[in-house]
Each structure stands twice: as structure tokens, then as C-alpha cells.
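Why does residue order matter? Because the sequence determines the fold. Keep that principle in mind as you read this record.
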Amino acid sequence: MKKDQHIILCAETPQDAETLLPAAKTLAEGFHKGIILLSCSDGADSWIGSYGVPYVALKGDWKTAIDGLPTVFGGILALALCNPSAPRTSITRPKTLLRTFRDCRIAYLVLPSRPSSPLATASLSLTLDHSRESKEKLIWASYFARFLGTQVRILHHRYTDQALLSRFRNNMRYLDKIFTAQHIPYTPCPMEGTHQLSNPDLHAVTLPADLFLAQTSDPRERDLASLLLPPPERRLLLSGKPLLLLNRRDDLYVLCD
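Structure:
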């Protein structure tokens, strides 16, 4: 059956393709999507056709290709590798990866360059706090639960400030409405030893889970202090955990199922 939506593997080298392909097959089977292997690296046409999946080798820059994933390739989820030791020009280096994907309009799953085991999807964690949550963040968590049987954990601060607690409870009611409508269970998990005004992702990513789902920071909301520090998502990438990242965009693509 022809599929018009695809999992896109973004591979610079044959080794990258071999590392990403098992994860792509797991996700494609669960989500009932196709697979496209994509490379913009020099010489990619000499190896990219060796893996038995549809492929595209482009003579251009990675960012242009990434920007066109949903419209040109029918991409719904991209896969990439993260290697903090890679050269600065490699898209697997955290800073370069985030710059290349900063305008990406689909979700992208980033795996460590040397995973200790094949991608597991038994558990997914995300945080909920007192700030306005993205609908897409909760929708993507529900996809993993529905199609892959993933157990969803909602990590959060233990709030003591009544104003923050009230806003957090509003967000939890919104979450419950979405998940209950689809008959999806989830487990609320308060975190110990965190400050209620701190970024919950930086602590939550250290806790056990197969996948961690996070949103990238919104460049429109960055102040002078944040411009002097690495963005939180770069620190998340350095955790070595598989990360499902969503950019904060008004036109983010989601699955049609």
C-alpha cells in the first residue's frame, strides 16, 4: 500500500543510516507510515541506495532540506543522531543540529550516535508546569500511547505557591480532557527536590524513561540572560537520552490519523 506520509531518516554517513534504520522501522510500523532515507552529504549517492528503503540524495544544504520535509517529502517525523564530539560542520553536533532544525515544521526524534540498545518505546516522559502548554506536545504523547502502546508519565514540580498551583491544575485538567477523550491512561509523577520556578525539563530528563518529549525554547521569548546561556534543549541533548523535540510554531504538522 502506498503511503503518503513518511518517517525521514537524516543521515550524513552510512554508519548514521545503519544506526537510525532500526528505529525508523519500529516507528514506521507502529505509526503505519513509510520511510525515506535522506542525505545532503557529499558522495551520498554512492551508499544511500543500499538499505532497501526509498531514498533521496540532494546536492544542497541540510537546512533547506529540513525546512521542506513536510511539503516536499511528506515527512511527519524526522530522525537524526546527536554526537557532541562531531565536527562543528556535522548536523549531529548539538549546536549545529538545533540550528539546522530550528525552523523544522515536524517533530524530530534525536538519538545518541552510539545507542546502547535499539530504540525502546515502552515509556515516554514529558513535563507539565504552570506555563501555557502546547497542544502539539500532548498530541504527540498520545500518538505514542495509541500506536505503540507507550506508557506516558507526566512529570511536574510540587507547587506551593497558590497562583502557580492554580495554573498548573488548569493545565492538568486540559491534559486529562485530551487523554480521557481518547481513553489513554497516564501517570502523574511529582518530582522531588526541584524549584517550582525552574525549568522542569532539565531535571526530568535525568529520570528513567525510554523517551523524553520536550519543546524547544521560543526565540521570541528569549531575554538577555538566556542569550548568554546555551538553550535548554542543548543541555537536554547532552543527556544522551532519546529526545522527541517539537519546535514552538503555529504551523507544526501532526499526524493525520
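The first strand starts at residue 6 and ends at 10.
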